[in-house]
Amino acid sequence: MKLYDEFLTDDLGFDSDKIQLNYSGHRGYHIRVRDPKVYTLDSNARIEIVHYVMGS
């Protein structure tokens, strides 16, 4: 999966062992990063990650 390989592990440096990919039916796929270094991120920092991944 491109998002997983290129952005989360390669660009952002998250350990693949700490990433969960879930499918919730009609709501689609959800990626959870269970890494202590993301627990302290505020909503602005999380939005910046989304913008980076989306290329906006």
From TrEMBL:
<protein>
    <recommendedName>
        <fullName>DNA primase small subunit</fullName>
    </recommendedName>
</protein>
<dbReference type="Pfam" id="PF01896">
    <property type="entry name" value="DNA_primase_S"/>
</dbReference>
<dbReference type="InterPro" id="IPR002755">
    <property type="entry name" value="DNA_primase_S"/>
</dbReference>
<dbReference type="GO" id="GO:0003899">
    <property type="term" value="F:DNA-directed RNA polymerase activity"/>
</dbReference>
<dbReference type="GO" id="GO:0006269">
    <property type="term" value="P:DNA replication, synthesis of primer"/>
</dbReference>
